[in-house]
Design goal:
With about 120 residues, the protein is mainly alpha-helical. The protein contains four helices and three strands, in the order βααβαβα. The chain has helices at about 15-20, 25-40, 55-70, 95-115, and strands at about 10, 45-50, 75-80. Strands 1-2-3 form a three-stranded parallel sheet, with helices on both faces. Helix 3 (about 55-70) links the parallel strand 2 and strand 3. The longest helix has 20 residues, at about 95-115. It is globular, with a radius of gyration of 14 Å. The N and C termini lie far apart (about 35 Å).
Length: about 120
């Protein structure tokens, strides 16, 4: 009996996909975002965060997210490379980085609502 009204979707994922699926990630993410909108509303704002760009495969995930946002006014991407990670090779952010990425995603959502 609950009536859900989803206002936006915040997305941060792709590290595992970078290893085996970086070449097809853009098509996959566009399809997934399309499915979210089919279920939750055609104008659903989606705000994604970059993953850590450890190598070309990881960079391909970020490029795919950027391309998806460039062609869709209801998708935005936030940069994350300047945030602290758990170690020099870890893909996980330290807690302050998680908080800052959350703030950036909310700011991107608010900016989208102004347009």
């Amino acid at each position: 009996g609950l009536d859900w009204n989803v206002k936006a979707l915040f997305w941060h994922q792709g590290e595992s996909d970078a290893i085996n699926h970086s070449a097809t990630y853009e098509a996959s993410i566009r399809k997934l975002f399309g499915r979210f909108r089919e279920d939750l509303g055609n104008d659903l704002p989606i705000i994604a965060g970059h993953i850590r760009d450890l190598d070309d495969q990881y960079k391909a995930i970020n490029s795919a997210l950027d391309a998806a946002a460039a062609s869709d006014k209801n998708t935005a991407v936030v940069k994350t490379a300047d945030q602290p990670f758990e170690s020099a090779t870890d893909v996980h952010f330290k807690t302050p980085g998680c908080h800052e990425i959350g703030r950036r995603m909310v700011a991107a959502y608010i900016e989208m609502q102004k347009r």
